[in-house]
Amino acid sequence: MNKPLVGVCFAALLLGATAAPATAVSDERPAKPRVKAVDFAGTVALSNCSGSVVRVPDSQPGDPALVLSNGHCLESGFPGPGEVVVDQPSSRSFTLLDASGGDLGKVKASKVAYGTMTDTDVSLYQLTSTYSDIESKYGIKALELNAARPEQGRAITVASGYWKKLYKCSVDGFAYRLKEGNWTWKDSVRYTPDCKTIGGTSGSPVIDDETGKVVAVNNTGNESGEECTDNNPCEVDENGKVTVREGINYAQQTYGIVPCVGAGNKIDLSRAGCELPKPSGAR
Predict the structure, then answer these.
(1) Which domains does the chain have, with CATH numbers?
(2) What is the Cα–Cα distance from 43 to 140, expressed in whole angstroms?
(3) Are 95 and 45 in contact (CB under 8 A)?
(4) SS (H, E, C) the chain
(5) Under 8 Å CB-to-CB from 249, ≥6 apart: which residues?
(6) Which pLDDT belongs to residue 161?
(7) pLDDT tens-digit map of 166-194
(8) Band of pLDDT at residue 19, cut at 50, 70 and 90
(9) Are 41 and 54 a contacting pair, CB within 8 Å?
(10) pTM value?
């Protein structure tokens, strides 16, 4: 996986024109609405990883804000296979970035609302600040999680708050299963080779360049061509065939998070359509 980093030494290793008359006929297709270029606004830097302040379509300004990162970036360490963390107290802080990557200040967690490395690699922190608090104090709006599955061929940007670097490429395809060491993830996003993400980019939002919405969370890559080992994930298809793609990096889709967020931004794993892994014994 795109290893979380501890300290500098470890890091080193690693419509504008006038409208035509109503009677005019044109063969030109309507222009797509312009979307602001992807930047760092709304991203955060963790002590060892990257992340972003996110919302779902139904989130309200007065809701406690959420920070999205990886399960393997949790301060408590990697969750084991099958382990799901829910509503665990946390006082972790995050450095909020502006559009150019400048530090705006700190936002602080009240709890780990959700975290796992089973089927996906995701963590969601609930903050002590609301979206309205963050916007009024820092002028920053949260990134929205797309409720739709990402599409193959779409241009994307992996925005790393840790490194203050933007990686640009496209969705190359999807891995039915992505296996790395003891963990297995489902329907992972595979990047085209341009996104050469590294340690510290873990947890970065993967943003669709056209919509500006988050479609995945960056988490791993095959570093040295090994098969299914730590830091060398392999793809496994429906028939069990294993494929190793050295130098290729991956992310976990986030549209499945949206149905699991209820009123007040509360993670509710019992909501209709929510398929995130549940804690052992939960229904």
Answers:
(1) 43-144+257-265 (2.40.10), 155-253 (2.40.10)
(2) 10
(3) yes
(4) CCCCCCHHHHHHHCCCCCCCCCCCCCCCCCCCCCCCCCCCCCEEECCCCEEEEEECCCCCCCCEEEEEECHHHCCCCCCCCCCEEEEEECCCEEEEECCCCCEEEEEEEEEEEEEECCECCEEEEEEEEEHHHHHHHHCCCCEEECCCCCCCCCEEEEEECCCCEEEEEEEEEEEEEEEECCEEEEEEEEECCCCCCCCCCCCCEEEECCCCCEEEEEEEECCCCCCCECCECEEECCCCCEECCCCCEEEEECHHHHHHECHHHCECCCCCCCCCCCCCCCC
(5) 2, 190, 191, 195, 196, 197, 218, 220, 221, 222
(6) 98
(7) 999 999 999 999 999 999 999 999 999 99
(8) very low
(9) no
(10) 0.89
Give the tens place of pLDDT for each residue, 224-264: 999 999 999 999 999 999 999 999 999 999 999 999 999 99
CA–CA separation, 144 vs 162, rounded Å?
20
| Residue type at position 199 | G
